[in-house]
Design a protein that fits this description.
With about 200 residues, the chain is mainly beta. Helix content is about 15%, strand content about 40%. It is globular. The model has no long low-confidence stretch (mean pLDDT about 90).
Amino acid sequence: MTIEKGQLWGEPGGLPAGGVIVHSDAEARAVVEAARRAGEPVPALGLLGGDLCRTLGGTGDASRIRTPEAMRLPVDLGAVLLDGRLHWFVAHLVARRTWLHGRVLAAMNAEFIGRWDVAPRSHPNDGRLDVFDVTMGLGDRLKARSRLPLGTHVPHPGIVEQRVAHLQVDLGHAVDIRLDGQLAGRARVLSIRTEPDAVICVV
């Protein structure tokens, strides 16, 4: 069950038998995709790095991940249909040509993209994705980029924010689609949704 305001989240416990240790969002995504395409349950993920790990308060301490001091947290996944094929992401989807020109769309399950605090109010177990649709000019983009590390780039009239369980968007023309930092293809129309409580992450 997705988290509700004031509710305790997760439980103490190390990585269970069959769990997989990953060092990045891309590694976590690869495990998720392999399980989904095989029609198997997604194994618990022991997070030692990446934007989702940071969002969950993970420290990257490999000695902790299998001990009772670790935390097991239910986490949502993002899913997107690209050219008729379903893909998944654990932390974020970014659709863009470049950061500085043209439309930029980010669907966030995690709070961070690298050193940027893109979605300061995002929670990876609320059944929603935080979506940011950027159409501002170059000057405003440069100002916003300087504020991204502290998460103070929003609100801004050139950034449309939504918190959604599903979204279909037409970007006007095909652009690169990056899932957890990896290029997954190009697309114009995106069908994006969340899969609540889809995986247990251990930090």
